[in-house]
Amino acid sequence: MSKQTRKQDSEELIDPISEMPGFDQTESRIAIHGHPIHAMSVAFPVALTFCVLGADVAYWWTGDIFWARAALWAAGTGFLFGMLAGVSGTAELLLVPGIRARAPAWTHFIIAVTLLALLGANWGYRLFGYEAAVLPYGILLSTLCVLVVSFTGWHGGKLVFDYQLGTSKGN
Ligand code: HEM
Prior knowledge:
single chain, mainly alpha, 7 helices, binds protoporphyrin IX containing FE
C-alpha cells in the first residue's frame, strides 16, 4: 500500500464527533475545588438502594414491623438523594461540551432516569401501607432496583475510568 493511499485511509476514518468544538473539554464544572459533586453524591442513593433490599429481607425473615418501616425510610431517602445526584449529573451533562458530545454519557443518563423511576415507584408504593407492601411486590421492586443501581454505578464508573469524563487534567 502506497504512502498516499494509507494517508487517504486514515483521513476517511476520522470520527466526526471528535471534531466537534469542545470535544476535549471533559473536566467537571459542577464541583467544589475540583471535586465533582456528582461523584460525591451518588454514594448515598447507591447505598440506600441496597439498604431497602436488606430491610425487606430482614422483614421477610423476622416479621418485625421495624424492618418494614426501615425499608420505607430507606426507599424515600434513596429516591430523594438519587434525584439530587441526578440534578448534578444532568447539569454536568448539559454544561460540559466534551461530556455532552459523547454517546456513553447519554446512555448513562437513560439508565439513571430508569433507576430514578424505579426508586420513586418503590417508595410511592410503600406510602399506601408499608408493611403490606413488602411481600411480594416491594421486595421484587427492591431486587430490580439493586440490579439497575449496580448497572448505573458500573456504567458511571466507565465514564470516569474509561473515558476520563468529569476528571481533572491535573498539573
Ligand atoms: C439522572 C441523570 C444523571 C446523569 C446525567 C449522570 C451523569 C454522569 C456523568 C457525566 C458522570 C461522569 C463523572 C462526572 O462528570 O461527574 C457520571 C458518573 C457517575 N454516575 Fe451518574 N448521572 C446521573 C445519575 C446517576 C445516578 C442516579 C447514579 C447512581 C445512583 C449515578 C452513578 C454514577 C457513578 C457511580 C458515577 C462514577 C463516579 C466516579 O467514580 O467518580 N449517576 N454520571
